[in-house]
Amino acid sequence: MAGAALIVSNDRDVVAKMATVFEFIDYDVAHAHDVTSTKDNLDYSSNYLIALVLMNDEDDQRDVVAVINQEIPSLSVYLLRKNDSPAQLLPNMKGVTGSIRFPIQYKDLLSRIRQSELDRKTSRGNKALSTSLTGNSPQIRNVEALIRHVSMTDANVLLLGESGTGKEVVARGIHQLSLRTDRPFVAVNCGAIPAELLESELFGHEKGSFTGAINSRRGRFELAEGGTLFLDEIGDMPMPMQVKLLRVLQERTFERIGGTKTITSNVRLIAATHQDLEKRIGEGKFRMDLFYRLNVFPIELPAVRDRPGDIPLLIEKFSTRMELQHRSPIEFDDSAIAALSSHPLLGNVRELENLVERLAILFPGETITHEKLPQRYQSRNSSSQATTLNTRKHSASHLAELSSLGENEDIDLKQYLSSLERTLIVRALENADWVVTKAAKSLSLQRTTLIEKIRKLKIKNKNEAKIDQVALPY
Questions:
Q1: Which secondary-structure segment (H or E) carries 41?
Q2: Number of C-alpha atoms within 13 angstroms, CB side, residue 422?
Q3: 316's torsion region: left (phi>0), alpha (psi -120 to 50) or beta?
Q4: Are residues 319 and 446 in the same domain?
Q5: Strand, helix or coil at 155?
Q6: What's the pLDDT tens digit per position in 92-135?
Q7: Is residue 43 located within the same domain as residue 153?
């Protein structure tokens, strides 16, 4: 057994004895004695499985629990209760998972640890966010840190990233951690509602204001009053509606269609898009003033291919979800995980989740190997091998050309090496369908390094119509 525990107490005897118990079961132990040191420990690491709290002052104890809940909402928090402290006198404190007697019994501690592991695995802990992101990569940790920073404010948030990266998941997470958590969370997909109906959907309408308006109807702004309104695919919003949305953001008021009463709005706005809004501004399809109103606190969500180390965790999460739905559990072996890690996964988390569900139906209770994956997920390895083979052929061609030069013939080494490098990169990109991540892997380069070389060598895709969201960022 191995893990990490946080002990928060201003009683040195408690800290020393608890540390000895945890070290015996091979747990890393961190110690804090007040709110400040607790926050410092939580900022340093988010790998804690369990936190144990015992403060002499009840208000201090309450503050410590509140900080833990804010920084790591999914962390199980247990209050230590000394033997001379009756259970009924334990304070009724929000955010506490339970209590443990001190001095602690070994079997009691193991029971709490197992429960904490189960809560984390199934995301069913009584404090855990059902909408928490899955992953332990630096990119995900950074996103989680940004969520914590902005959640306690009323600042507008703009979520950026490809489709399927979890923008609505993050929006719900911000809402749940905010002071508006007890108020409504209302989501609207601006791209899925016809332009002529979007105004009514957002602001509502009065009876008889247009053909078919047989009753008055509240819009999403009214339904979300006091809470959070999530506008997904904001980049698809028609220009006339952008003007009306800007007015609401500036004045915090609006009127229903056909109405004369001005309604005050107290709504926290979170917008999301997979599009490049600055590019759309240049094309005259998005208002610059609205962009800056929305872009108060931008959060960019990473694509799954940019954090391949999180793929096993995502697979485990989805497999566990299948099991909770009373389906036979499945596992993925190393060959299957390696194949998925090398695949671009254009649909990101959504694609991976659908794949796990499909495989759970096809191979219930089995271990998924590389051979059991759909063909499109298997072909990446052979494609990578083809890229490597073609690269070697071109290298050999250049070497043959070099050897054919006469002994006294001059050569511009810098220009020659640049030409060779360009040839190898272009060939790798062509074999990778201009997917930079895949080409970088075949060349044994970091993705950012390859992008820099592409820009430096001014490499362009001749058929730019084929470039997708993961292609070259010109």
A1: helix 35-44
A2: 13
A3: alpha
A4: no
A5: coil
A6: 566 787 778 888 877 778 877 877 776 665 443 334 344 457 88
A7: no
